[in-house]
Amino acid sequence: MTDRSAVDTIRGYFYQFDLSILSVLQLASPDDSIEIECTEDIDIRTASDVTATQCKYYAKTEYNHSVIKDAVKHMVSHFKESLAGTKPKVAYSIKGHYASGQEKLDGGVDVDFLKKHFLTYTKEKVTYYHYLDLGLSDTELEEFLKRLTIDIRAKAFDQQFREVVGALQVALGGTSFSAEYFFYNNALAVIRDLSIKAAPTDRAVTKKQFLARINTSSILFNEWFVERKGKKAHLAALRREYFTELNVPPYERFFMVEVDTGSYDRGDLKDLFLELSRKWAKLSAREPSPFCPYIYVHGVPDSELLELKRELSTEGFKLIDGHDFQGADFSHQSITQTATHGNGIRIKVLNTLPNVEQTVDAVTKTRRIYQFHIGNCYFQYDKPAVRHVKIQVERLSDVKSII
């Protein structure tokens, strides 16, 4: 597969995922549901009926009847079984986006058109008539057409995506950023998770269940979402949203980062300490309200954190950790002392999660917590006075790209 065809294939997957998300958001009742990859790509189930939808995305291809022929044949086969009572009665829908050729269906589809263009095919120079093989009469084919909807003027890729994000914002509120980076990100993960379940019953979700699953307050590192955005663009968007301020206000910022012990490198963590201090400390003699950031590192042994602090101190990088002398208990009064040009404190290190909570509680100024986690969140702090941003990353170096 060429790079170009691979990109087209991936866009096709996203197009189907987006249509799935839009389908569940547009359900009228919270108890209505969709089913992924059951009868068709998307089955929409309401209290009164079921619609099986086949989705096609060919943005660079002219529409020809052959493009949807297999889908129609499959639906007709299912229809035959429904007449026999071995499959449930459903409505059928084909949605497709094409570069051109849509006028070929402007005249509509009657029984003769159906038989000629969709149910007749040639294989190894032999002509087959699918409707005859199934033993379907014209009257039965007429009934099938009543159940079939074909839309070959479906929305373009970006147009459908914007509609999905807008629908998420309407359903769950918030900003367009939260709709995309929280809710859409999570929605992609839910749809993908459903699509790979083995049992059909496990591939169903109601509107109520779907909204509950995607309404989280953490930005998860979903590889499909990042694939769509591109990792560089994904990290840049997070930086713009949370870490781009022309005049940095003197807030108390708590940066919490997680280390993957399997790939840990002290130099990487040391660089992050230096970068945090460079960007998020103001210690000039002219600064009326000087400040510096706090940092907590999750997943690093105490002995290694001690060695890092010792190394930074030896190099003249002044830090404090709330312990005023060897063996002293942690003191939030000590660590919350103001960093100034005179004392030269460039970063404040919190050694444990209880130290973090105690310090955040003790601070009376405006507080911000930025928790970067590789696995699950490791710190819960949900007091309304404190903004707590939770961002899942793939590796420690991503944090540096974001902040």
Helices and strands, with pairings:
Layout: H1 3-25, E1 33-36, E2 42-45, E3 50-62, H2 65-84, E4 91-100, H3 111-118, E5 120-123, E6 126-129, H4 130-134, H5 138-147, E7 148-151, H6 157-172, H7 176-195, E8 204-206, H8 207-214, E9 218-219, H9 223-229, H10 231-242, E10 252-258, H11 266-280, E11 294-298, H12 302-314, E12 319-320, H13 332-335, E13 347-350, H14 353-362, E14 367-373, E15 387-392, H15 396-402
Parallel strand pairs: 3-4, 4-7, 9-15, 10-11, 10-14, 11-13, 12-13, 14-15
Antiparallel strand pairs: 1-2, 1-8, 2-3, 5-6
Summary, kept brief:
This protein is α/β, with parallel strands linked by helices and 403 residues long. It contains 15 helices and 15 strands. The chain has 2 domains: 216 residues, no CATH class; 151 residues.
Account of the protein in words:
With 403 residues, this protein is an alpha/beta fold. It folds into two domains: 3-218, no CATH class; 245-395. It contains 15 helices and 15 strands. The protein has helices at residues 3-25, 65-84, 111-118, 130-134, 138-147, 157-172, 176-195, 207-214, 223-229, 231-242, 266-280, 302-314, 332-335, 353-362, 396-402, and strands at 33-36, 42-45, 50-62, 91-100, 120-123, 126-129, 148-151, 204-206, 218-219, 252-258, 294-298, 319-320, 347-350, 367-373, 387-392. It has a seven-stranded parallel beta sheet. A hairpin with a 4-residue loop joins strand 2 (42-45) and strand 3 (50-62). Helix 1 packs parallel to helix 6 (157-172), helix 1 crosses helix 7 (176-195) and helix 11 (266-280) runs parallel beside helix 15. The longest helix is centred in the first third of the chain and has 23 residues, at 3-25. The model has no long low-confidence stretch (mean pLDDT 93).
